[in-house]
Amino acid sequence: MTLAAGPPQRRTILTIGSTLVAIVLLHYLGVLRPLERLAVQTLLPIGRWTTGWLSPVAETRSSETSARMAILEQRIAELNVENAQLQSALEAAVEADEQERFLKTRQFEGVAARLVARSGDPTSEFVTVDRGTRAGIQIDAPAIVAGGVIIGRVIAVTDDISRILLSTDNRSSFAGVSLQSTTTQGLVSGARGLSLSMGLISQSEHIEAGDIIVTSGVDSGVPRGLVLGEVERVDRQTGALFQSASLRPLFQSNRLDVITILTTNQ
What total number of domains does the chain contain? Predict the structure, then answer.
């Protein structure tokens, strides 16, 4: 139930309404214009003073916020670098552990080394590692990564530095044999630093895509069974003495880091 307004309340409402109507009417008639100008002239300096007082405070807070944001962005960048370094160290540790397990499985002896430089010449595929003759490394020693994948052999060595010519270099070659058919043999050479090719394969031998090619053990200092690559394509030509195959190397030269160099001639 709604209570009706009493006489005093009704008079108050009527008074306020009448006053508002009168003010609006006087404004449109221009009667209040002098008072309005006086109010504006009085309040405008106050507004300017308030704005001038608050602006330095706002600018200070804005500067403080920008400085804090810059510090946070710098810290985020530092954390990203630290995370990348930790990830790289973890991957190197895993790779070194897998290489060590391979040595134990095959009863080989080898020296773990870290890559310190890559070839800057696009026509030459080699890397430099931080171990040399002091660690027992010799010329022509094979270099491997996880899984017994051979990446090349040592072509130069000093007391503490070795240079490894990668198997994908045009000057590199290894005697290879198919893991699926030990009678299928050929010569595996580098192909423009990108892949491998296997030639001198007898036409009477069977070889197909997916076959794994390993070292045959014929090369001095290179044991049998190190993985060279996987056959991608076979090229057979009618009337030719030999067939050939294109191989995919099972390592990425741009991701090499930890490398094991064999120090025993198996």
Answer: 2
